[in-house]
Specification:
The complex is a heterodimer of chains A (116) and B (112). Chain A is mainly beta and 116 residues long. Helix content of chain A is 0%, strand content 55%. The chains are: A mainly beta (116), B mainly beta (112).
């Protein structure tokens, strides 16, 4: 099983619908992230969480919200989806304990969202 | 201006060629420099990591950082078709909680 699991892997929805993307991890990492990937724009940070009670906005948080339900779970919501939110979404984790000094990000396999 | 600039390509080379991938950046606070590799329909995976300036070699891969020029490079020697992927440069600093900023990614095709 993958260490970082995203569901659903693919979703097609209509403008105005509420969508939730879920992420769970078995790596035991404290930090979790949601990124969005668009062709030519790379990965852009939407939200991140360093602990269960910590939520921070990234560079493109407008139109999105998140919930950190537990250390292992971090969900991304689009309250009213619009076509320009069509993209590939990645959840990632990192461990910034004293023994892990690279800040390496571990990614899920992505959730492809299409908003019609 | 983006904090990190990377030519998206695509870059097509014959098998066995030396590949050079590059990024420039504007934030002089960046201290950690990384290259991630992303295969089609997969999430990115860390390929190389360098702290501050200098070179780092791992097998056929060499990462270089020139902080004075704000320029980083990844060299792939004896490229193989299995190296065909998107390569994303990434950077972070110990201010702002080590948030990682990515380049756009360069698509590389290695032809057999």
């Amino acid at each position: 099983d993958a260490d970082v699991t995203q569901t659903p892997r693919n979703r097609i929805t209509k403008t105005g619908k509420r969508i939730m993307l879920e992420c769970s991890q078995t790596k035991g990492h404290d930090r979790m992230y949601w990124y969005r990937q668009d062709p030519g724009l790379g990965l852009r940070l939407i939200y991140y969480s360093f602990d269960v009670k910590d939520i921070n906005k990234g560079e493109i948080s407008d139109g999105y919200s998140v919930s950190r339900q537990a250390q292992a779970k971090f969900s991304l919501s689009l309250e009213s989806a619009i076509p320009n939110q069509t993209a590939l979404y990645f959840c990632a984790t990192s461990d910034f304990s004293a023994s892990a000094n690279t800040g390496e990000l571990f990614f899920g396999e992505g959730s492809r969202l299409t908003v019609l | 201006q983006k904090e990190v600039e990377q030519d998206p390509g695509p870059l097509s080379v014959p098998e066995g060629a030396i590949v050079s991938l590059n990024c420039t950046y504007s934030n002089s606070a960046f201290q950690y420099f990384m290259w991630y590799r992303q295969y089609s329909r997969k999430g990115p995976e860390l390929l190389m990591y360098t702290y501050s300036s200098g070179n780092k070699e791992d097998g056929r891969f060499t990462a270089q950082v020139d902080k004075s020029s704000k320029y980083i490079s990844l060299f792939i020697r004896d490229s193989q078709p299995s190296d065909s992927a998107t390569y994303l440069c990434a950077m972070s600093s110990n201010t702002g909680g080590f948030k990682t900023i990515f380049g756009a990614g360069t698509r590389l095709f290695v032809k057999a």
